[in-house]
Design goal:
19% strand; 18 strands; TIM Barrel; 12 helices; Actin, Chain A, domain 4; 353 residues
Amino acid sequence: ASVSFLETRKIDGAYTEPASWSTYLFDTTTGKALTAKDIFRDSYREKASAYALDYFQKTYGKQLFGNYKAILAPESDVFSTFALTDNSVIFYLDKYEILPGDCGAIRLEIPREVFKGSFLTDPEEVIPPVVEEPAQPEEKPSETGRVIDPNKPMVALTYDDGPSPTATNAILDVLEKYNAVATFYDVGYRVAQYPDVVKREAALGCEVGSHSYDHKDFKKLSASQIQADVKQVNAAFAKAGVKPTSFRPPYGNTNATVQANVPLPIVTWSVDTLDWKTRNVDSIMKEVKGAGNLDGKVILMHGIYDTTAQATAKLVPMLQEQGYQLVTVSELIQYKHNETPKAGKLYGYSYFQ
């Protein structure tokens, strides 16, 4: 038998934390608690993962965000939390885990027949002989389905201080037109004002990061003040249904206290366009062109200026024509440096040279 619980919690009587699931399985005869290993062979994970990916991609499409392929991978904890019925196996995903908050906590019901041969009570499956496959190509699919070649030049465009319903949407129009992505470091109070823009950033496969709640200099804050800001900005992102993947400190200022209290990778930049200062398209383009070889570099811009959006309309096709792959910051770290971004680690100017 199995029992499932959906838990929600409120903070200060107002903000509701994302709903989360708990399940319990037990033998009704002995009362013994059961785990997946008591019920399934390991092959059940591959079958559950394949079914889930196909179902969510067909049903929700661009609503999926974040690293959803990793969350639905066979080794994911998602497939350790389940309930059983006579006809199905039910898996559970927490609210905001791979879909916007208005989709709620997810209950995925997979027919038992999908797991034929994977229950311990089923006859052992016949495993076909291993056939050596040809070497995999160098190109690798990103989490958004784009193909990234780690041997070809790549650059990450980043936009701070948004979202803006005008400038950010104009930037997103350009990215969508050229099938490109960027990373947006949004401030919490603007996320609360314009959640639909943030949702669009994520829906287009862009990476969404935190730039603090209201752009205070984190080097001047205490540990408790940083923690309070993190809590506040996370609440704003959660209400928008998007989870930030990295953190860009305001002014690029960081220290040991910041790194110890921000639970995300900390990212700065290596090319500053000075778009905030010049507000001029030609000047922005001049800074980028003057940076020389852009392979592996992170370009800093701001998503709240119309001139930056106008420069983006020139910059994106120019970079693509020059052979650069436009990637997110996390993709750049992963494919250029073969590293998974780590919480609390600084990825700064020297890293992106």
